[in-house]
Design a protein that fits this description.
This protein has helices at 13-24, 39-42, 44-48, 65-75, 89-94, 96-117, 151-170, 192-204, 225-236, 254-264, 293-299, 307-327; strands at 4-8, 28-33, 56-59, 79-82, 122-128, 173-179, 182-183, 211-213, 219-220, 223-224, 243-246, 252-253, 273-275. The chain is α/β, with parallel strands linked by helices. The chain folds into 2 domains: 4-183 and 223-246, NAD(P)-binding Rossmann-like Domain (Rossmann fold, 3-Layer(aba) Sandwich), CATH 3.40.50; 192-220 and 251-288 and 305-327, UDP-galactose 4-epimerase, domain 1 (Alpha-Beta Complex), CATH 3.90.25. α6 (96-117) runs parallel beside α7 (151-170), α8 (192-204) runs parallel beside α10 and α10 (254-264) packs across α12 (307-327). It is globular, with a radius of gyration of 20 Å. The structure holds NADPH dihydro-nicotinamide-adenine-dinucleotide phosphate and guanosine-5'-diphosphate. Residues 8-9, 11-15, 32, 34, 36, 42, 61-63, 83-87, 102, 126, 128, 179, 181-182, 188 line the site of NADPH dihydro-nicotinamide-adenine-dinucleotide phosphate (NDP). The site of NADPH dihydro-nicotinamide-adenine-dinucleotide phosphate has 26 residues, from α1 and β5.
Amino acid sequence: MAKTALITGITGQDGAYLAQHLLSHGYTVYGLLRRSASAEIIGERLRWLGILDDVKLIDGDLIDLSSCIRNLETARPDEIYNLAAQSFVATSFQQPLLTGAVTGLGAANMLEAMRIVCPKARFYQASSSEMFGKIQEQLQTERTPFYPRSPYAVAKLYAHWMTVNYRESFGMHASSGILFNHESPLRGIEFVTRKVTDGVARIKLGLARELRLGNLSATRDWGHARDYVQAMHLMLQQDTPDDYVIATNRTTSIRDFCQMAFSHVGLNWQDHVVTSADLLRPSEVDVLHGDASKAREAFGWVAKTSLEDMVAEMVEADLARHRARIAAPAPSQL
Ligand code: NDP
Ligand code: GDP
């Protein structure tokens, strides 16, 4: 029988790819949409994937428990994917309380709403490798102790343990995916990978000369969001809820990412990248490197897209966007 899913954060990178994936499996997909004064751009990622008209968007905000309850009453989902968050680490240092309210307590609101409305549904929590922070083991697994290094990571850790707690206390089918960084052409422009690929496109097309970045020595285990949303779905198809690390098992520095992206268009990154102390963080996560063996053994998930292919896809998408803007400047929406 066709299933129904509710995705919080459907307008974000992962929400859009997950909606596409679930629609391709015959799901009815509901998505939480928070009210915005800029409504015409909020569905941009869903539009980019050509699925804006295929999903059912319902009004709601994660920090409003009553709206979470009403949304579940409307959608009556078999599966709930809690992807909504204030998801940018740098912003969490400037807005720690908002980050705690949305990224931490927001998850508790969804769990509580589910307990009240549809306790038999299945729940996915978008946990993060940022919870490992100041890493306690070279290769991070589900058993590695956490050491969060930002208000974002602290909030995610609260949401993670609430998910475990609701599973253990109330027998709810609640799973947590500890996902390492994953990127795509739909990644927010403020994250380093997209900032770099957008910068490469601007510089190549003569729209900019330099790209300002912060710490180039940090390393991340970067995968493709399209692969990672499949892991979210697979987790909820398991008989028993559990926690899984999702990663590629390869870690790369920001410096090397720049080299790959600039060389894709025949440029030398060192001619264009400028470092700025303003972009350093109060506390940094130096290295993330994940081991997703448990997910591979449990349900056969492995990352399919190589970093090289993803960088090429992102640079090409940003070149296409900027070329389209040059050819036909967008009329004002106001
Ligand atoms: P995005 O930042 O692209 O998307 C976040 C989504 O949350 C948006 O749809 C946003 O809506 C929504 N949102 C924010 N605040 C609220 C609120 N108060 N009520 C309802 N919705 C809200 O994140 P990603 O898609 O990259 O990530 C998805 C999830 O996975 C996030 O929880 C993130 O923290 C987590 N994660 C991501 C990783 C990554 O590398 N991408 C790694 C590990 C975890 P709007 O469009 O209105 O802003
Ligand atoms: P995060 O892992 O969720 O914090 O993802 P980001 O893409 O925001 O940052 C990844 C790493 O890139 C962090 O170690 C940042 O300090 C580093 N970085 C270096 N320069 C920049 C920059 O200009 N913007 C961002 N967002 N990160 C940068």
